[in-house]
Structure formats: C-alpha cells, structure tokens
Amino acid sequence: MNITPQITQAFIVCISAIFTQNILLSYFLGLCPFIGCSREVRSSVGLGLAVIFVMTCTCALNWILYHFVLEPLHLEFFRFIMFIIIIAAFVQFVEMVIDRFSPYLYQRLGVFLPLITVNCAILGACLFMVIRNYSFIVTVGYGLGSGIGWFLAIVAMANIRGKLANDLIPKGLQGPGITLIIAGIMALAFIGFTGVLAGQ
Amino acid sequence: MIQTLLISVLIMSAISAGLAAVLVVAEFFLRNYGECKITINGEKDLVIDGGGSLLASLVEQKIFIPSACGGRGTCGLCKVKVPDGAGSLLPTEEPYLDKKEIAGNMRLSCQVKVRNDLKIEIPEELFNIKEYSCSCEEIRDLTHDIKLFRFKLIEPPDIKFTPGQYMQLLAPIYEKSKEEVYRAYSIASDSAQKDIIDLIIRFVPGGICTTYCFEYLNVGDKVKMNGAYGEFRLSETDADMLWIAGGSGMAPFVSILHYMKNTGNKRKVTYYFGANKVKELFLLDEMRQFEKDLPNFRFVPVVYEPEEEWNGETGLVTKAVGRNEKNIADCEGYLCGSGGMIDASIEVLKKLGLDEDKIYYDKFA
Question: Could you give the CA distance from residue B212 to residue B223 in angstroms, rounded to a whole number?
C-alpha cells in the first residue's frame, strides 16, 4: 500500500482544517472556553496547545475505536457516547501523567487539560472524521489541523482583546458581547481563505 | 434486536470499565501524594489525602468555599489566600486575579492542587458557618409578643461569632407546617459565652417559625440552627455611633454591648429604641446596667403613645432622633428592625447629614 498520496491528502486536510474549515470560526465549536479563556495571551496559548495535543490524540484513538470495535460490531450509533468517554478518560490520564512527571509542562499545559474535557470542538472533530470517512493518517492530519486552527483563533482573539482592554466599550457590550462580535468578524475573514484555495 | 442491545450494553460497559480500571490504577500510582496537612488561619489543621484540588479537599471537610462553575476555573469565585505551599501561580488563575490579589497570595482554590502541606487563610465567616444542634434552656417573656429564647449548644459545643451576626433557626415539621423552614434571627448573647445562643423573637401571626417557637417549643426541646452569618457589626473606627432599633431589633445591640463591655470600648453610643407602649419596652434593667458599665453609652427609649405616666421621649423613634441629634456628619448609624423602620431611619439620618455608606444595617425580609 502506497501511503504517499495519503500523506499528501493528510497535509491538505490539515491545512484546510486550519484555515478554510476552521473548527471554531467556521463551525463555531468550542466557543465556551474560547470566550472564557481569551482574556490573556499567555493562558490562551496554553489552552490552545492543550487542545492541539488532545484533539490529535483523541481523533486517532477514536478512529481506532470506531474502525476496530464499533464498526465490526455494528455499533456505529454508539459513537457519541463512546467518543466522549474516551476523551474524558484520556484527558484525565494525561493530566495525571504530566502532573506527576513534569511540573514545568504541567504548569504550561497540564492545568488546561481538565478544562477541555468538555470542549465540544474535540468531540466535533472526532465526529467529522467519521462522517468524512478519513483514513487513519488523514484523521491524524485532520485532528492536528483542527487543533492548530482552534489555537490560532483563540490566540488571535486574546491579542485583540488585549488591545481592547484600554478602550472604552459600551457597558452592555463588555466581555462576551464584544468577543462574540469580534469572533463574527474573524469568521468573515476566514471565509476569505476559502476563496484562496478555490482559486487555485 | 435484543442481541444488538445486549452487545452494545456489554461493549460499552466493558470499555468504560477498562478505562475506569486504567484510571484507578494510574491514580493509585501517580496521584499518591500521601497525607497532607492543611492549616487554616493558623488555628486548625486538617489532614487529608493529597492529590485533589484545594477546593474539593475543603468541601470534603465541610468547609464551603463559594464556587459557581464547579471547579472548572471559569467563575473566579473560589479565591482563597494561600500564603504557603501552593507553588507558583498557574496561568489558569491569572485572568481572575488582579495585581493586588496576586501580591497578597490569593489563589483560585479549584486550580491549586494539594501536593504537600498547605497554609491557607479564609474569612472566619466561611470557616465558622456550621450547623449546631442545641437544646432550649430558657424561654423568657419580654413583652406580650416578644420572647427571649436561650439555647445551649450540644454539637458542636461552642460557637465563634462576631457580635451583630445572625443565626438561621430551623423550624421542623410540626402540626401547622408541612415543611422545614429556616428563619434568620440576630444573636443577642455575649460572644464570650461560647456555648449559649440567645435569640429575641417577636411573634408574627401566622409565621411558621415564630408560631413554632411560641406555641410548640418547650424548655428541653432540641432544635437545629446554622450560622453565624451577616456583615452587621461594629466598625473598627472611633466614630460616635447612633443606634436605632425597634422590637426584636434589640437583639444584635445586646450582643454588641456585651462585647463593648468585655473589651472596654469607650466609643460614644446613643441608642434610640422605639416601642408603641411603655409596656412594650424590655430589657430596661440590662440597659441601665450597661449605661453604668460603659461610660459613653446612653439608652433612649422612645414610646409612641404612652398609655401611662412616661417622662421619656414620645412619638416615632425617627422623629426623636431628628429632635435630639445635630451635626452627626462624623457619626456612624446602626439600624436594626422592620424594613419600614430602617427606611425611615435612613431618611432621617441622611437629612441630618450622615453619609449613606456610614449607615449599617441587615435588612430581614
């Protein structure tokens, strides 16, 4: 089996997941931590990295589960519950490992892990990879790309909010209000990327 | 069909059990930090199994830190001062703490892990809110509709409260009430007497808790209450004070007077107490005694319509304050009583030049 075309496809899927199909700005998944944790660049970077890591790993794990357990047993309808369970257990496990063995990594990354157990972007990515019938390698690329896309979006938002911190914003729009409006404008910009790819 | 159902349940249980087993094993080996000691306010030591978050560990020990998000680090309410043992500030906490709080070692307790011995400081109130079981030791008639109930604490056997705070008394299910209700009453006893709680309660016709207290509660009966709550207390200034109360609003001031007597407080106090009739005044002997014990304390009973000979103040208590007090801009106002009386008193005090933020009261619905 020649895997070069698969790697090429994985690369393309990865890039499109970052820009044109950005899981946050095109599908609006994972909005809760996006709004909650985008107040500071430092913590948004940490959370973003954790999302990249967890998304890549859980997409791969769930692909294995889906194709080697659920599909042979005709239990595809179970994927919603099973994926969530896998994600939660994986996150718990990784947090414990990091906590124990690398205080530095825990400080930068580990503390964010429990926060993203319930990040719906992660479940979303796992479900998309099933719907779109990705192969394993492509799935890894897709998970990685979606994670990077989410990371970019939240870091960009944190930077914008940092700039806004000293501006006068009408009272009713402060906090989540202005954040959602900015997210909408960013989403519009990301639609622009679709045109770039389509034009080739 | 049934086969599918069985297989699916079986598979899901198997996978979940497998994962749970992995986590349990991992937790046993990775999260084993042994026993850790949490020292609270330098007074109390708790020994707990390490590895959990500080918030969860405290809740396990029945110390309830306010938290709205359930420990996910998104509400920022569970702030606790941790002077020692928490490690460096985590990026998940930063957004919720300002510079002053960071300098003061404030942390989000849901993000701090208990890995070693910790020292924490929490407001006494949080630490001291407990449920007490007690027995009614004495019921004393003060007027025709106000009684003083004395309770002796059984478990825990003593209480720490700030004079001016209130307790929530539980009225159990009884003949006239199908549900348990809590009602708040200010503590009237001396805070130095740690095993006693006095409550002064006015009978409210049809009231669930007051009916219970007045018609069903007997000396020797067991009741439950929790507390102490409330921010109503003596300020830490030397300003002259004006106290205004009516009816069972007497209670917190009795406790505060005991406290002032115990600590030799010399602040000037003028205490206006309003009643409808002369026979509705109570604890007069005690007040006269406090006047003797505290050099700058003056008790001014005000009777609305004296039915007998009365050579004190008459009319509404708020009017009496208006008549007697001038230049009170530097004073502090302390109010306790019905909502109507408090609103009227605030009006009068503001008119006399007192700033609203120097008027203290607990408004009970």
Answer: 11
**Cβ–Cβ below 8 Å for B27 and A96:** yes
B341 assigned to some structural domain: yes
Percent composition of chain A: helix, strand, coil (DSSP 3-state, to 5): 80, 0, 20
Clarify whether residues B308 and B349 are in a common domain.
yes
pLDDT at A76: 83
Q: Which 8-state DSSP code applies to residue A199?
A: T
Helices within B198-249 (DSSP H only): 208-211
Any domain includes B17: no
Residue B231 one-letter amino acid:
E
ipTM for the assembly: 0.72
Are residues B151 and B215 located together in one domain of the fold?
yes
Higher pLDDT, A198 or B308: B308
CA-to-CA distance for B306 and B209, rounded, in angstroms?
Answer: 31
Q: Is residue B132 scored above 50 in pLDDT?
A: yes
pLDDT in tens, B160-199: 899 999 888 888 888 888 888 888 899 999 999 999 999 9
Residue A68 DSSP symbol = I
Is the same domain home to B356 and B259?
yes
Structural domain boundaries, residue B255:
241-361
Using one digit for the tens of pLDDT, what is the confidence trace for A121-134?
999 999 999 999 99
Which of A31, A32, A37 would best serve as a mutation to test chain B binding (most B beta carbons within 10 A)?
A: A37
Chain B nearest-CA residue for A107: B90
- Across the interface, of A78, A100, A107, the residue whose CB is closest to B88 is A107
For residues B121 and B147, membership in a common domain is answered with no
For B292, the token pair is 């003797």
* Total structural domains within chain A: 1
Q: Which domain holds residue A174?
A: 13-194
Query: How buried is B340 (Cβ within 10 angstroms: 0-12 exposed, 13-18 middle, 19+ buried)?
Result: exposed
Residues A105-120 pLDDT 10s: 777 777 777 777 778 8
| Domain annotation covers residue B248 | yes
Is there a single domain that holds both residue B62 and residue B141? no
Which of B126, B155, B172 is the last residue in one of the domains? B126
A97 in contact with chain B, both atoms CB, cutoff 8 A: yes
Does residue B2 sit within a domain? Answer: no
The closest of A126, A156, A131 to A142, measured between CA atoms, is A126
Taking CA atoms, what residue in A is nearest to B111? A111
* Close Cβ partners of A15 (under 8 Å, ≥ 6 residues apart): A145
**Does B84 share its domain with B48?**
yes
**DSSP letter, residue A25:** T
Same domain, B111 and B168: no
A199 falls in which pLDDT band (50, 70, 90)?
Answer: low
